[in-house]
Amino acid sequence: MTAWGTFFCFLLLWVGSPSAHALQAVVDVKPQIVELTDFPIEYFIDPSQSLDYEAVRRQSFETTTSTTSLGTQAPVTWYRVALHNPGTAVRRLFLHLPKAYHVRSVSVFEERNGKLIDQASVNLDEASDHPLIYQGKVVYPFTIPAEETTFLYVRSNAYTHQWFSLKIYGDEQSRRALAGGQLDIALLVGMMLALVFYNGLLYFATSKKENIFYSLYLISGLVWIALSYGLIASAFNAYGDAVFVLNLSLIAMPIFLTLFMMAIFETRKFYRTEHRVLQGMLALLVATFLYGLFDIAAALKPASSLAALMMVVTLSVSISLFRKGNPLVKFFLVGHTFFVIFNGLAVAYYKGLVEPSYINSHGVGIGIVLEALTLAFIISYRIKVLEDIRSRQGELKRQAATDPLTRLYNRRHFMVEGEYMVEQARAAGRPLSVIAVDIDHFKAVNDTHGHGVGDRVLTNVADIFRQFSRDQDLVARFGGEEFVVLLPGADHAEAYGCAERIRKAVEAHTLEGDGGVPIRVTVSLGLTEVNGVAESLENAVHRADKALYEAKTSGRNRVCFSGGAGG
């Protein structure tokens, strides 16, 4: 095209198009690969929300970029782009509106030489089978003749926030753009689903209410991410009012986060002031949620400001708990700081205060996932702390129930646990036997070889008891050199066999004393079968002691048996 031809073309545009005098930029469509994703466009906010194409094209437009955010004060906005074909062949192009899934409706008007040559409208409530909708995107095909300019007007009617993105592609680039995308959002949602599953397992293991609140927080977050970034539209081909109501998840999310904080930090019990602050925030959020059940669009308009207030309150409470020494809040502060930073960028983006970028537009999703990972760590860490406490408590109970030298149970534990075993045997009609054991001439061992060797004798004998008793048997050191074994399910014959195995094992065992002197000891044993009708464990142990006394007086290193109760 000659210089005079170019001048004539623009002169014709200025005369033929009523709005051309306001046009700030014309985008040249190069004859090479067409993939326009960041270029200047213009916009006009329709305050009446009722102007038609003819009226709008005479308005003054302002300049912005092809990806922009105008906040909540621009529900109906017209966008305009001028595309010039400097080549000698007709160009077939495609207008992509990748964020169309979150608006009420979108209309495209195609103008050339001051005349409307084509138009199309998409009502998102009825868009499931619309030919211009593909996975939540509006795709409008158009052509530009050689050496001519086409104006595209796009009317976007948003529910609340006016987020807009416009891209121009050639045929092959359009197909690639439709085939790609959403992988990052699917990854975020997949991570949160995995956390929901993991947390569900934790709930069944611990039954802690904070696990419920955390799960609901995760579910609300992943619903909002999938909705806001088009994954629901892409996966389920669902749009319009029925889907838009899912934006309530944006309000539900901080509700469950607040409840989680109150539960995990036990604010009701330990931090009354912070608890009241969180209660106030919770009341405001719940009221907004209930209002959203009746008018979701109106409830979401102050959502960005409410989110900012929520971040200030939760961060302030977290800092207060940190100063008061809460051991978990330092981890929460790390994750919540990420949440506040990225959500702050997102709030600024939604209000149109910052330039569009991937981080700004995806800030909520990134912040939610980072905080969700931190909360998962907090829950796991708290479980570990509780398990450590239980372990220490269990160790203290074990120490209270065992003899420190032999590590066998002590007399107190034997009598408490033994009574329970007697009741079980009586209810099941099963036999139960008691063996009383005493080390022969143990005083002589202490006097001859010293108490150190005597202690080694006790521990060696205790090891033999463990080796020759069953897992269900209850073995205890009653004091000094006396031991008792309770054998559930064992009648007189089985108990006698066990007693004999213990006696022979002790007799065969040799302990090396100081200077390599071999030391051997024997044991005397008395056994009895517990009367299953009404005999107490104490009485049965007393009868076993009588049988033990008989074994010692009749020569030691033997087993004697005592008959039924009173026998």
TrEMBL record:
One GO cellular component term noted in the UniProt record for this chain: plasma membrane
Domain GGDEF: 430-564
Cofactor: Mg(2+)
EC number per UniProt: 2.7.7.65
UniProt keyword terms in alphabetical order: Membrane, Signal, Transmembrane, Transmembrane helix
GO molecular-function term, one example from the UniProt record: diguanylate cyclase activity
Gene Ontology BP annotations: cell adhesion involved in single-species biofilm formation; negative regulation of bacterial-type flagellum-dependent cell motility
Substrates-to-products reaction catalysed: 2 GTP = 3',3'-c-di-GMP + 2 diphosphate
Transmembrane regions: 185-205, 212-236, 242-265, 277-297, 303-322, 329-350, 362-383
SMART domains named in the record: GGDEF
Pfam families, per database record: 7TMR-DISM_7TM, 7TMR-DISMED2, GGDEF
Signal peptide range: 1-22
Xref: InterPro entries: 7TMR_DISM_rcpt_extracell_dom1, 7TMR_DISM_rcpt_extracell_dom2, Diguanylate_Cyclase, GGDEF_dom, Nucleotide_cyclase, Rev_trsase/Diguanyl_cyclase
Protein name, entry field: diguanylate cyclase
Phylogenetic classification of the source organism: Bacteria, Pseudomonadati, Pseudomonadota, Gammaproteobacteria, Alteromonadales
